[in-house]
Design brief:
five-stranded antiparallel sheet; alpha+beta; five-stranded mixed sheet; Beta-Lactamase
Length: 569
């Protein structure tokens, strides 16, 4: 009896707080109450049996004993039946409560399903209990399925979170390695708590170990050059001001910081701010770069550029001086040639005049003596006529040469634009070059349309053809060769004229063509070549005539310089 009383109370105390099990507990208590009634009847039978054993009811002992045995057997069967059907839900409830307390992740083993035939056999007394147990079993299965589904969702979310964490760590590692590879230091300012962070690289740039310099703004501010401190503070204060929503700007500033050893470094600081929706700075992350060597290199390059520009200026001055020297030398050669050309007709005229003067004195003597014959007078007149004609012709030639020299010399010294007949002007140039050509076996011809008027610099043509002819004489022909040079002019359009200077010489090698117009380039250095002649030609064509010059091969050998220029400037 004691066991039957204590055991239900113990079981009831375990499940008193489990609300979904109320119906099942009521059924269990009903069975327990039935067992208690049977137990009380069994106790009465035991009392009767004891009295019979004492002899008080001996006549009825056997009957009571038999009745007691029957009752005990019924009670035992009832208890077994009760324990059989009550133990299953009790163990299920214990497992559910244990799973709920431990937040289990695996499903509760399914309770055995009762067949409808067995439920019907239990009778009307236990049918509601069994149906309630089945409903509870289904509800628990659904709850366990939902819990399992939530568990799976939680596990998946946890896996995704772990993956995101791993990716974030890899991204942070790549970012840190990339910044470390650039040699830049990292600094950060958190506006919420006004905290600063400076990486170890920020300190090592300045020569400090990590523990030797505090990661604070004050520690780094003390190392900024006094002349830069105010500028840095103002720039930072301006950067942290409220910006319009969605704006994006970069903090960038150069300043000097003192190295641990005392010298100054040039630091480039770049940063970007994270702002809230109202435009206030939440956090700033930036880098420090040591650009001292870059600035030194830039300064060295600037100094080198300045020195190079100065050298180029000096070279240009020297080139201009050499060009002037070349021009004066060409003018001197022209003077010498013209002097030789003028000297010849003047010499002939002088000889004729001397002869005429001697004959005139002879005739005068005969006249004074009164012995002049008519035949002698006629002979003198014939000689005088021929002599004066000869003198006039050669003096005219000399005057023409002097006029050509005057025109060319004036054009060379006075660079002015004027309109002139290109063909006639080129003939005057060739006339001035003939003395030089007479010293060689070479000849030059001119093919130019008549009446071709141009409005440009005449002096440019004089210098151009002087240098082209001299270049051909020096480089184009081999020794003993009879060189032929030709100037051919043609009208390309109403605004363009083409001039070709051609020779039948050895031509120009492909490797040399690209360098022909470079200053001081010559293949005859030490043999009379200065390397400036063709450079002067190029500059005159491009700068003065506003044209272009190129080199072509001529059929059968030789070279051809093609000049295209506008008819009027």
């Amino acid at each position: 009896m004691t066991i039957l009383v204590i055991f239900p109370k113990f079981v009831l105390s375990l499940f008193v707080n489990v609300k979904p099990l109320t119906l099942l507990l009521m059924a269990w208590l009903g069975l327990l109450f039935a067992a208690m009634l049977a137990g009380s009847y069994w106790l009465i039978d035991l009392q009767h049996a004891a009295m019979a054993k004492a002899g008080t009811m001996a006549p009825h002992f056997e009957m009571n004993a038999a009745h007691l045995s029957s009752d005990l057997l019924g009670i035992f069967v009832l208890i077994l039946f009760f324990l059989l059907f009550s133990s299953i839900p009790l163990w299920v409830l214990l497992a559910v409560q244990k799973k709920q307390q431990q937040q289990a992740t695996r499903l509760l083993p399914e309770l055995p399903q009762l067949e409808p035939a067995k439920i019907e056999a239990l009778g009307s007394t236990f049918a509601p209990v069994l149906h309630a147990m089945q409903a509870l079993q289904q509800q628990q299965a659904q709850e366990m399925a939902q819990l399992s589904e939530r568990n799976e969702m939680f596990a998946n979310a946890l896996d995704e979170l772990n993956d995101m964490g791993r990716q974030l760590r890899r991204s942070e590692l790549r970012w840190a390695l990339a910044l470390e590879a650039t040699g830049d230091g990292i600094w950060e300012w958190d506006a919420d708590d006004n905290s600063w962070y400076f990486s170890q690289r920020c300190k090592s740039i300045l020569g400090y170990l990590d523990q030797e310099l505090a990661s604070s703004f004050d520690a780094f501010r003390q190392l900024i050059h006094p002349d830069d401190a105010e500028r840095v503070a103002n720039h930072f204060a301006q950067y942290v001001q409220v910006r319009p929503k969605g704006s994006y700007d970069i903090f960038e500033l150069e300043f000097r910081m003192q190295h641990k050893e005392g010298h100054w470094l040039q630091i480039l600081s770049r940063a970007v701010a994270s702002r809230d929706l109202e435009g206030h700075v939440v956090r700033i992350v930036g880098t420090h770069s040591d650009i001292t060597e870059q600035r030194k290199t830039i300064q060295d390059l600037s100094n080198a550029k300045e020195a190079a520009e100065k050298a180029v200026s000096q070279l240009r001055n020297a080139q201009m001086q050499m060009i002037e020297s070349e021009k004066l030398a060409a003018l001197g050669a022209l003077v010498a040639g013209v002097a030789h050309e003028v000297n010849t007709p003047l010499g002939i005229a002088l000889t004729a005049a001397s002869t005429l003067n001697g004959d005139t004195e002879t005739v005068l003597d005969l006249v004074h003596a009164g012995s002049l014959k008519k035949s002698e007078l006629q002979h003198y007149l014939e000689i005088a006529h021929d002599a004066t004609g000869l003198i006039l012709r050669h003096c005219d030639n000399a005057a023409r040469l002097i006029r050509s020299f005057k025109n060319i010399s004036v054009d060379q010294t006075a660079e002015v634009i004027r309109e002139f007949d290109l063909g006639l002007y080129l003939q005057e140039i060739l006339q001035s070059l003939r003395p030089s050509l007479r010293q060689t076996t070479h000849t030059i011809t001119l093919d130019c349309p008549e009446g071709l008027m141009v409005h440009t610099y005449p002096s440019a043509f004089t210098q151009i053809f002087n240098n082209l002819v001299n270049n051909a004489i020096l480089h184009a022909f081999v020794a003993g060769q009879h060189g032929v040079m030709q100037i051919k002019v043609q009208i390309l359009s109403d605004v363009l004229v083409e001039m070709r200077f051609m020779d039948n010489g050895i031509g120009i090698a492909e490797s040399v063509r690209a360098k022909v117009f470079e200053p001081f380039y010559t293949t005859k250095r030490g043999q009379g070549g200065s390397g400036l002649g063709m450079s002067i030609v190029h500059n005159l064509v491009v700068a003065q005539l506003k044209g272009v010059i190129s080199i072509e091969e001529t059929p059968g050998g030789g070279a051809s310089f093609v000049i295209v220029f506008p008819r009027a400037l």
